[in-house]
UniProtKB/TrEMBL annotation:
Record-given protein name: Circularly permuted ATP-grasp type 2 domain-containing protein
Domain of life: Bacteria
Gene3D superfamilies xref list: 3.30.1490.270, 3.40.50.11290
Natural source organism: Pacificimonas flava
Domain Circularly permuted ATP-grasp type: 64-440
Pfam families listed in its UniProt record: CP_ATPgrasp_2
Length: 463
Protein backbone atom coordinates (compact mmCIF):
# COMPACT_ATOMS: atom_id res chain seq x y z
CA UNK A 1 0.00 0.00 0.00
CA UNK A 2 2.94 2.29 0.65
CA UNK A 3 5.97 2.94 -1.48
CA UNK A 4 9.57 2.75 -0.29
CA UNK A 5 9.31 6.44 0.68
CA UNK A 6 6.51 5.62 3.13
CA UNK A 7 3.84 7.49 1.18
CA UNK A 8 0.58 5.83 0.20
CA UNK A 9 0.55 4.78 -3.46
CA UNK A 10 -1.98 6.63 -5.60
CA UNK A 11 -4.06 3.49 -6.29
CA UNK A 12 -4.49 2.92 -2.53
CA UNK A 13 -5.27 6.48 -1.41
CA UNK A 14 -9.06 6.08 -1.27
CA UNK A 15 -8.73 2.70 0.46
CA UNK A 16 -6.29 4.13 3.02
CA UNK A 17 -8.71 6.96 3.78
CA UNK A 18 -11.57 4.45 4.12
CA UNK A 19 -9.50 2.28 6.48
CA UNK A 20 -8.65 5.30 8.61
CA UNK A 21 -12.36 6.13 9.01
CA UNK A 22 -13.48 2.52 9.61
CA UNK A 23 -13.83 1.68 13.34
CA UNK A 24 -11.77 -1.38 14.22
CA UNK A 25 -14.75 -3.15 15.79
CA UNK A 26 -16.78 -2.64 12.59
CA UNK A 27 -13.97 -4.03 10.42
CA UNK A 28 -13.71 -7.04 12.72
CA UNK A 29 -17.50 -7.51 12.60
CA UNK A 30 -17.59 -7.53 8.80
CA UNK A 31 -14.60 -9.86 8.73
CA UNK A 32 -16.56 -12.30 10.92
CA UNK A 33 -19.64 -11.85 8.69
CA UNK A 34 -17.62 -12.87 5.64
CA UNK A 35 -16.36 -16.00 7.39
CA UNK A 36 -19.91 -16.92 8.46
CA UNK A 37 -21.17 -16.46 4.88
CA UNK A 38 -18.40 -18.67 3.51
CA UNK A 39 -19.19 -21.33 6.09
CA UNK A 40 -22.90 -21.29 5.20
CA UNK A 41 -22.09 -21.55 1.50
CA UNK A 42 -19.79 -24.48 2.20
CA UNK A 43 -16.70 -22.84 0.71
CA UNK A 44 -14.26 -25.35 2.12
CA UNK A 45 -11.18 -27.40 1.35
CA UNK A 46 -9.56 -30.46 2.90
CA UNK A 47 -5.90 -31.06 3.66
CA UNK A 48 -4.79 -34.59 2.80
CA UNK A 49 -2.58 -36.47 5.24
CA UNK A 50 -3.64 -34.59 8.38
CA UNK A 51 -5.04 -36.49 11.35
CA UNK A 52 -7.72 -33.81 11.65
CA UNK A 53 -8.67 -33.80 7.98
CA UNK A 54 -12.06 -32.15 8.41
CA UNK A 55 -13.00 -29.65 5.76
CA UNK A 56 -11.90 -26.11 6.60
CA UNK A 57 -12.87 -22.61 5.59
CA UNK A 58 -10.18 -20.87 3.57
CA UNK A 59 -9.57 -17.70 5.60
CA UNK A 60 -10.73 -14.62 3.71
CA UNK A 61 -9.31 -11.17 4.37
CA UNK A 62 -11.65 -8.25 3.70
CA UNK A 63 -9.01 -5.66 2.73
CA UNK A 64 -8.60 -5.91 -1.07
CA UNK A 65 -5.33 -6.03 -2.94
CA UNK A 66 -5.24 -3.28 -5.60
CA UNK A 67 -3.44 -3.32 -8.96
CA UNK A 68 -3.60 -0.48 -11.47
CA UNK A 69 -4.85 -1.05 -15.00
CA UNK A 70 -1.38 -0.28 -16.42
CA UNK A 71 0.27 -2.79 -14.09
CA UNK A 72 -2.26 -5.45 -15.05
CA UNK A 73 -1.77 -4.77 -18.76
CA UNK A 74 1.85 -5.87 -18.31
CA UNK A 75 0.75 -8.97 -16.40
CA UNK A 76 -1.83 -9.82 -19.06
CA UNK A 77 0.66 -9.49 -21.92
CA UNK A 78 3.18 -11.69 -20.13
CA UNK A 79 0.64 -14.37 -19.15
CA UNK A 80 -0.76 -14.63 -22.70
CA UNK A 81 2.76 -14.88 -24.17
CA UNK A 82 3.72 -17.55 -21.63
CA UNK A 83 0.64 -19.75 -22.05
CA UNK A 84 0.72 -19.58 -25.84
CA UNK A 85 4.40 -20.62 -25.82
CA UNK A 86 3.68 -23.50 -23.41
CA UNK A 87 0.84 -24.74 -25.63
CA UNK A 88 3.24 -24.65 -28.60
CA UNK A 89 5.79 -26.52 -26.50
CA UNK A 90 3.25 -29.27 -25.75
CA UNK A 91 2.25 -29.51 -29.42
CA UNK A 92 5.95 -29.85 -30.26
CA UNK A 93 6.98 -32.48 -27.68
CA UNK A 94 4.03 -34.69 -28.63
CA UNK A 95 4.91 -34.14 -32.29
CA UNK A 96 8.18 -33.28 -34.08
CA UNK A 97 10.13 -32.39 -30.87
CA UNK A 98 12.05 -29.59 -32.54
CA UNK A 99 12.93 -28.00 -29.19
CA UNK A 100 14.62 -31.22 -28.06
CA UNK A 101 16.48 -31.59 -31.35
CA UNK A 102 17.72 -28.00 -30.95
CA UNK A 103 19.20 -28.86 -27.55
CA UNK A 104 17.19 -26.22 -25.69
CA UNK A 105 15.91 -28.71 -23.10
CA UNK A 106 17.52 -32.04 -22.10
CA UNK A 107 15.31 -34.77 -23.65
CA UNK A 108 15.21 -36.82 -20.44
CA UNK A 109 13.46 -33.96 -18.61
CA UNK A 110 10.56 -34.38 -21.03
CA UNK A 111 10.53 -38.00 -22.18
CA UNK A 112 11.27 -39.48 -18.72
CA UNK A 113 8.93 -37.06 -16.98
CA UNK A 114 6.14 -38.87 -15.05
CA UNK A 115 3.64 -36.42 -16.57
CA UNK A 116 4.62 -37.25 -20.16
CA UNK A 117 1.84 -39.36 -21.69
CA UNK A 118 2.94 -41.32 -24.81
CA UNK A 119 -0.71 -41.83 -25.81
CA UNK A 120 -0.88 -38.09 -26.61
CA UNK A 121 1.57 -38.55 -29.51
CA UNK A 122 -1.44 -40.00 -31.39
CA UNK A 123 -3.94 -37.31 -30.35
CA UNK A 124 -4.06 -33.71 -31.53
CA UNK A 125 -6.29 -31.53 -29.32
CA UNK A 126 -8.55 -29.08 -31.20
CA UNK A 127 -6.61 -25.99 -32.25
CA UNK A 128 -3.43 -27.23 -30.59
CA UNK A 129 -4.72 -26.18 -27.16
CA UNK A 130 -3.55 -28.48 -24.35
CA UNK A 131 -3.94 -26.12 -21.40
CA UNK A 132 -7.36 -24.51 -21.83
CA UNK A 133 -7.48 -23.33 -18.22
CA UNK A 134 -4.26 -22.03 -16.66
CA UNK A 135 -3.21 -20.41 -13.41
CA UNK A 136 0.08 -18.49 -13.34
CA UNK A 137 1.47 -17.77 -9.86
CA UNK A 138 3.37 -14.50 -9.51
CA UNK A 139 5.14 -12.58 -6.79
CA UNK A 140 5.90 -8.89 -6.69
CA UNK A 141 9.22 -7.49 -5.51
CA UNK A 142 10.72 -4.01 -5.69
CA UNK A 143 11.71 -4.90 -9.28
CA UNK A 144 8.19 -5.82 -10.44
CA UNK A 145 6.23 -9.05 -10.98
CA UNK A 146 7.97 -12.42 -11.46
CA UNK A 147 6.47 -15.84 -12.21
CA UNK A 148 6.85 -18.34 -9.39
CA UNK A 149 5.19 -21.33 -11.08
CA UNK A 150 2.83 -22.39 -13.85
CA UNK A 151 -0.32 -24.41 -13.14
CA UNK A 152 -1.53 -26.03 -16.35
CA UNK A 153 -3.06 -29.36 -15.35
CA UNK A 154 -6.15 -28.70 -13.24
CA UNK A 155 -5.53 -25.29 -11.63
CA UNK A 156 -7.82 -24.50 -8.72
CA UNK A 157 -8.88 -21.34 -6.92
CA UNK A 158 -11.16 -19.64 -9.42
CA UNK A 159 -14.25 -20.32 -7.31
CA UNK A 160 -12.64 -18.49 -4.41
CA UNK A 161 -11.80 -15.56 -6.71
CA UNK A 162 -15.47 -15.26 -7.72
CA UNK A 163 -16.87 -15.82 -4.22
CA UNK A 164 -14.42 -13.29 -2.75
CA UNK A 165 -15.74 -10.66 -5.14
CA UNK A 166 -19.36 -11.44 -4.27
CA UNK A 167 -18.58 -11.23 -0.57
CA UNK A 168 -16.90 -7.84 -0.99
CA UNK A 169 -19.83 -6.49 -3.03
CA UNK A 170 -22.20 -7.48 -0.22
CA UNK A 171 -20.05 -6.28 2.68
CA UNK A 172 -18.55 -3.06 1.29
CA UNK A 173 -20.74 -1.63 -1.50
CA UNK A 174 -19.53 1.92 -0.74
CA UNK A 175 -15.94 0.90 -1.53
CA UNK A 176 -16.98 -0.14 -5.02
CA UNK A 177 -18.72 3.20 -5.50
CA UNK A 178 -15.37 4.92 -4.81
CA UNK A 179 -13.33 2.64 -7.08
CA UNK A 180 -13.88 1.63 -10.70
CA UNK A 181 -13.06 -2.08 -10.35
CA UNK A 182 -12.94 -4.30 -13.42
CA UNK A 183 -15.27 -7.33 -13.18
CA UNK A 184 -14.02 -10.90 -12.70
CA UNK A 185 -17.43 -12.46 -13.46
CA UNK A 186 -16.48 -12.57 -17.16
CA UNK A 187 -14.45 -15.70 -16.36
CA UNK A 188 -17.56 -17.88 -16.62
CA UNK A 189 -18.42 -16.37 -20.02
CA UNK A 190 -14.87 -17.08 -21.23
CA UNK A 191 -15.15 -20.68 -19.97
CA UNK A 192 -18.49 -21.25 -21.73
CA UNK A 193 -17.19 -19.76 -24.98
CA UNK A 194 -14.06 -21.91 -24.85
CA UNK A 195 -16.01 -25.14 -24.28
CA UNK A 196 -18.14 -24.35 -27.35
CA UNK A 197 -15.09 -23.52 -29.48
CA UNK A 198 -13.18 -26.74 -28.66
CA UNK A 199 -16.16 -29.11 -29.03
CA UNK A 200 -15.85 -31.79 -31.73
CA UNK A 201 -16.97 -30.73 -35.20
CA UNK A 202 -20.23 -31.89 -36.74
CA UNK A 203 -22.37 -31.46 -33.61
CA UNK A 204 -25.96 -30.43 -34.20
CA UNK A 205 -27.06 -27.76 -31.77
CA UNK A 206 -25.36 -26.80 -28.51
CA UNK A 207 -22.49 -29.10 -27.42
CA UNK A 208 -23.07 -30.95 -24.15
CA UNK A 209 -20.39 -30.33 -21.54
CA UNK A 210 -19.86 -31.80 -18.08
CA UNK A 211 -17.52 -31.27 -15.13
CA UNK A 212 -15.88 -34.58 -14.18
CA UNK A 213 -15.04 -34.78 -10.46
CA UNK A 214 -13.41 -37.58 -8.45
CA UNK A 215 -16.16 -37.07 -5.88
CA UNK A 216 -17.15 -35.35 -2.67
CA UNK A 217 -13.99 -36.39 -0.80
CA UNK A 218 -11.71 -34.42 -3.12
CA UNK A 219 -10.16 -31.33 -1.49
CA UNK A 220 -11.49 -29.05 -4.27
CA UNK A 221 -14.98 -30.59 -4.53
CA UNK A 222 -16.64 -27.30 -3.61
CA UNK A 223 -15.04 -25.67 -6.64
CA UNK A 224 -16.11 -28.53 -8.93
CA UNK A 225 -19.76 -28.16 -7.91
CA UNK A 226 -19.53 -24.35 -8.00
CA UNK A 227 -18.22 -24.32 -11.58
CA UNK A 228 -20.77 -26.85 -12.84
CA UNK A 229 -23.53 -24.74 -11.31
CA UNK A 230 -22.24 -21.48 -12.80
CA UNK A 231 -21.69 -23.07 -16.22
CA UNK A 232 -25.16 -24.60 -16.17
CA UNK A 233 -23.86 -28.11 -16.86
CA UNK A 234 -23.90 -31.43 -15.01
CA UNK A 235 -21.38 -32.37 -12.32
CA UNK A 236 -20.58 -36.03 -12.94
CA UNK A 237 -18.43 -38.81 -11.55
CA UNK A 238 -16.86 -41.54 -13.64
CA UNK A 239 -19.75 -43.96 -12.99
CA UNK A 240 -22.18 -41.44 -14.55
CA UNK A 241 -20.44 -41.80 -17.94
CA UNK A 242 -19.76 -44.72 -20.27
CA UNK A 243 -18.11 -45.28 -23.65
CA UNK A 244 -19.79 -46.91 -26.62
CA UNK A 245 -18.66 -47.04 -30.27
CA UNK A 246 -15.90 -44.49 -29.48
CA UNK A 247 -18.38 -41.94 -28.09
CA UNK A 248 -18.95 -40.90 -24.47
CA UNK A 249 -22.45 -40.91 -23.02
CA UNK A 250 -23.97 -39.67 -19.77
CA UNK A 251 -26.56 -41.77 -17.96
CA UNK A 252 -29.75 -39.78 -17.39
CA UNK A 253 -33.34 -40.57 -16.39
CA UNK A 254 -34.29 -39.95 -20.02
CA UNK A 255 -31.70 -42.34 -21.41
CA UNK A 256 -28.07 -41.89 -22.56
CA UNK A 257 -26.99 -38.43 -23.75
CA UNK A 258 -23.83 -37.91 -25.82
CA UNK A 259 -21.15 -35.85 -24.07
CA UNK A 260 -19.02 -33.55 -26.24
CA UNK A 261 -16.70 -31.72 -23.80
CA UNK A 262 -15.39 -32.98 -20.46
CA UNK A 263 -13.91 -30.40 -18.09
CA UNK A 264 -12.01 -32.87 -16.01
CA UNK A 265 -10.84 -32.29 -12.44
CA UNK A 266 -9.23 -35.74 -12.22
CA UNK A 267 -5.51 -36.41 -12.57
CA UNK A 268 -4.28 -38.14 -15.74
CA UNK A 269 -3.57 -41.45 -14.00
CA UNK A 270 -7.22 -41.93 -13.04
CA UNK A 271 -8.95 -40.74 -16.24
CA UNK A 272 -9.22 -44.05 -18.09
CA UNK A 273 -8.30 -47.46 -16.62
CA UNK A 274 -7.72 -48.83 -20.13
CA UNK A 275 -5.07 -46.19 -20.92
CA UNK A 276 -3.56 -45.32 -17.52
CA UNK A 277 -3.94 -46.92 -14.09
CA UNK A 278 -5.97 -50.14 -14.48
CA UNK A 279 -7.11 -49.96 -10.85
CA UNK A 280 -8.78 -46.56 -11.22
CA UNK A 281 -12.48 -46.45 -10.41
CA UNK A 282 -12.70 -42.66 -10.82
CA UNK A 283 -12.49 -42.37 -14.60
CA UNK A 284 -14.24 -43.72 -17.69
CA UNK A 285 -13.07 -46.87 -19.48
CA UNK A 286 -12.69 -46.05 -23.19
CA UNK A 287 -12.46 -42.27 -22.71
CA UNK A 288 -9.06 -41.96 -24.40
CA UNK A 289 -10.24 -44.04 -27.36
CA UNK A 290 -13.17 -41.66 -27.88
CA UNK A 291 -10.79 -38.71 -27.47
CA UNK A 292 -8.42 -40.14 -30.09
CA UNK A 293 -11.35 -40.60 -32.47
CA UNK A 294 -12.18 -36.89 -32.12
CA UNK A 295 -15.59 -37.57 -30.63
CA UNK A 296 -15.02 -35.85 -27.29
CA UNK A 297 -12.71 -33.06 -26.07
CA UNK A 298 -10.94 -33.27 -22.72
CA UNK A 299 -10.22 -29.98 -20.91
CA UNK A 300 -7.31 -29.77 -19.99
CA UNK A 301 -5.68 -32.33 -22.25
CA UNK A 302 -3.92 -35.32 -20.66
CA UNK A 303 -0.13 -34.96 -20.66
CA UNK A 304 -0.28 -31.21 -20.04
CA UNK A 305 1.53 -31.65 -16.71
CA UNK A 306 4.91 -31.88 -18.46
CA UNK A 307 4.75 -28.13 -19.01
CA UNK A 308 4.18 -27.19 -15.35
CA UNK A 309 6.89 -29.39 -13.88
CA UNK A 310 9.20 -27.13 -11.84
CA UNK A 311 12.27 -28.33 -13.74
CA UNK A 312 10.61 -27.37 -17.04
CA UNK A 313 9.54 -24.08 -15.43
CA UNK A 314 13.18 -23.08 -15.22
CA UNK A 315 13.39 -23.30 -19.04
CA UNK A 316 10.23 -21.28 -19.81
CA UNK A 317 12.13 -18.10 -20.82
CA UNK A 318 14.02 -20.23 -23.36
CA UNK A 319 10.74 -21.87 -24.44
CA UNK A 320 9.15 -18.46 -25.04
CA UNK A 321 12.18 -17.32 -27.05
CA UNK A 322 12.26 -20.55 -29.11
CA UNK A 323 8.63 -20.37 -30.24
CA UNK A 324 8.01 -16.61 -30.37
CA UNK A 325 11.46 -15.24 -31.18
CA UNK A 326 10.99 -12.71 -28.35
CA UNK A 327 12.16 -12.40 -24.76
CA UNK A 328 9.66 -13.28 -22.03
CA UNK A 329 7.70 -10.24 -20.88
CA UNK A 330 7.23 -11.84 -17.45
CA UNK A 331 10.48 -13.30 -16.20
CA UNK A 332 11.00 -16.25 -13.87
CA UNK A 333 12.33 -16.02 -10.38
CA UNK A 334 16.05 -16.88 -10.57
CA UNK A 335 16.29 -20.68 -10.37
CA UNK A 336 19.10 -23.19 -9.82
CA UNK A 337 18.53 -26.67 -11.26
CA UNK A 338 20.04 -29.03 -8.71
CA UNK A 339 20.51 -31.68 -11.40
CA UNK A 340 23.40 -29.53 -12.68
CA UNK A 341 26.62 -30.00 -10.61
CA UNK A 342 27.45 -26.29 -10.28
CA UNK A 343 23.88 -25.45 -9.25
CA UNK A 344 23.86 -28.30 -6.71
CA UNK A 345 27.12 -27.08 -5.18
CA UNK A 346 25.79 -23.52 -4.94
CA UNK A 347 22.56 -24.76 -3.35
CA UNK A 348 24.36 -26.90 -0.76
CA UNK A 349 26.75 -24.06 0.09
CA UNK A 350 23.92 -21.51 0.50
CA UNK A 351 21.07 -23.70 1.71
CA UNK A 352 20.37 -21.45 4.70
CA UNK A 353 19.55 -18.55 2.33
CA UNK A 354 17.50 -20.37 -0.33
CA UNK A 355 14.04 -21.81 -0.95
CA UNK A 356 14.28 -25.42 -2.17
CA UNK A 357 11.34 -27.17 -3.87
CA UNK A 358 10.60 -30.61 -5.26
CA UNK A 359 10.04 -30.41 -9.02
CA UNK A 360 6.91 -32.59 -8.83
CA UNK A 361 5.26 -31.17 -5.69
CA UNK A 362 2.64 -28.46 -5.17
CA UNK A 363 0.64 -26.85 -2.39
CA UNK A 364 3.71 -25.84 -0.40
CA UNK A 365 4.69 -29.47 0.29
CA UNK A 366 8.22 -30.83 -0.10
CA UNK A 367 9.68 -27.34 0.35
CA UNK A 368 12.42 -25.84 2.51
CA UNK A 369 12.64 -22.13 3.37
CA UNK A 370 16.27 -21.85 4.37
CA UNK A 371 16.18 -18.68 6.53
CA UNK A 372 13.32 -20.12 8.61
CA UNK A 373 14.63 -23.70 8.85
CA UNK A 374 16.22 -25.36 11.88
CA UNK A 375 19.68 -26.92 11.72
CA UNK A 376 18.08 -30.36 11.69
CA UNK A 377 15.81 -29.42 8.75
CA UNK A 378 18.78 -28.01 6.82
CA UNK A 379 20.77 -31.21 7.33
CA UNK A 380 17.81 -33.34 6.32
CA UNK A 381 17.46 -31.39 3.06
CA UNK A 382 21.21 -31.64 2.40
CA UNK A 383 20.85 -35.40 2.50
CA UNK A 384 17.80 -35.28 0.19
CA UNK A 385 19.62 -33.09 -2.31
CA UNK A 386 22.66 -35.38 -2.39
CA UNK A 387 20.46 -38.49 -2.79
CA UNK A 388 18.16 -37.04 -5.46
CA UNK A 389 19.49 -33.79 -6.96
CA UNK A 390 17.32 -34.15 -10.07
CA UNK A 391 14.22 -33.94 -7.89
CA UNK A 392 14.84 -30.36 -6.70
CA UNK A 393 15.26 -26.76 -7.75
CA UNK A 394 16.40 -23.84 -5.59
CA UNK A 395 15.42 -20.16 -5.64
CA UNK A 396 16.40 -17.08 -3.65
CA UNK A 397 14.29 -16.10 -0.67
CA UNK A 398 12.42 -13.15 -2.15
CA UNK A 399 11.31 -10.03 -0.37
CA UNK A 400 7.65 -10.41 -1.36
CA UNK A 401 5.35 -7.42 -1.40
CA UNK A 402 2.95 -7.06 1.51
CA UNK A 403 -0.65 -5.87 1.81
CA UNK A 404 -2.62 -4.59 4.81
CA UNK A 405 -4.45 -7.53 6.39
CA UNK A 406 -6.88 -7.86 9.29
CA UNK A 407 -5.41 -9.68 12.29
CA UNK A 408 -7.77 -9.65 15.26
CA UNK A 409 -8.28 -6.00 16.16
CA UNK A 410 -5.23 -4.88 14.20
CA UNK A 411 -4.37 -4.22 10.57
CA UNK A 412 -0.93 -5.69 9.85
CA UNK A 413 1.29 -6.23 6.83
CA UNK A 414 1.32 -9.76 5.43
CA UNK A 415 3.08 -11.23 2.39
CA UNK A 416 1.01 -11.95 -0.73
CA UNK A 417 1.26 -13.55 -4.16
CA UNK A 418 -1.12 -13.49 -7.14
CA UNK A 419 -2.58 -16.33 -9.24
CA UNK A 420 -3.73 -14.98 -12.60
CA UNK A 421 -6.32 -17.13 -14.40
CA UNK A 422 -6.50 -17.48 -18.17
CA UNK A 423 -8.79 -19.34 -20.58
CA UNK A 424 -7.33 -20.44 -23.94
CA UNK A 425 -9.23 -21.45 -27.06
CA UNK A 426 -8.12 -21.76 -30.70
CA UNK A 427 -9.31 -18.15 -31.10
CA UNK A 428 -7.46 -16.41 -28.24
CA UNK A 429 -6.20 -16.50 -24.67
CA UNK A 430 -8.15 -14.32 -22.26
CA UNK A 431 -6.87 -13.30 -18.82
CA UNK A 432 -9.34 -12.42 -16.05
CA UNK A 433 -8.76 -8.85 -14.78
CA UNK A 434 -8.10 -9.76 -11.16
CA UNK A 435 -7.12 -13.24 -10.06
CA UNK A 436 -6.66 -14.79 -6.65
CA UNK A 437 -4.43 -13.02 -4.13
CA UNK A 438 -3.17 -15.50 -1.56
CA UNK A 439 -1.93 -14.14 1.74
CA UNK A 440 0.39 -15.62 4.37
CA UNK A 441 -1.59 -15.00 7.56
CA UNK A 442 1.27 -15.82 9.95
CA UNK A 443 3.55 -12.91 10.75
CA UNK A 444 6.73 -13.05 8.66
CA UNK A 445 5.62 -16.18 6.77
CA UNK A 446 6.30 -16.47 3.04
CA UNK A 447 4.04 -19.52 2.52
CA UNK A 448 0.65 -18.47 1.15
CA UNK A 449 -0.85 -21.90 0.30
CA UNK A 450 -4.20 -22.64 1.95
CA UNK A 451 -2.90 -26.10 2.83
CA UNK A 452 -0.16 -24.39 4.86
CA UNK A 453 -2.38 -21.91 6.71
CA UNK A 454 -2.69 -19.17 4.10
CA UNK A 455 -5.80 -17.19 3.18
CA UNK A 456 -7.15 -15.20 0.24
CA UNK A 457 -8.08 -11.63 -0.69
CA UNK A 458 -10.16 -10.04 -3.41
CA UNK A 459 -7.92 -8.68 -6.19
CA UNK A 460 -8.97 -5.37 -7.67
CA UNK A 461 -7.80 -4.13 -11.05
CA UNK A 462 -8.77 -0.48 -11.38
CA UNK A 463 -10.37 0.36 -14.72
Amino acid sequence: MRGSDGNVREAYQKLESWLSDMPVDELERRHAAAELAFRRLGITFAVYGEEDADEKIIPFDVIPRIVTNDEFAGIEEGVVQRIEALNQFLTDIYGPREILKAGIIPPELVLANPQFQPVMTRIKPPGGIYSHISGIDMVRTKDGFFVLEDNLRTPSGVAYMLENREAMLRLFPSLFQDHRVRPVETYIDHLQDMMREVAPSGIRGEPLGVVLTPGAFNSAYYEHSFLADRLGIELVEGTDLFAEDRFIYMRTTEGPQRVDVIYRRIDDDFLDPLAFRPDSILGVAGLMDAYEAGNVTVVNAPGTGVADDKAIYSYVPEIVRFYSGKDATLDNVETWRCREPDALKYTLDNLHELVVKRVDASGGYGMLIGPQATKAELEEFRARLRDDPEGYIAQPTLSLSTCPTVSGKNVCERHVDLRAFAVSSPEETRVVPGGLTRVALKEGSLVVNSSQGGGTKDSWVLA
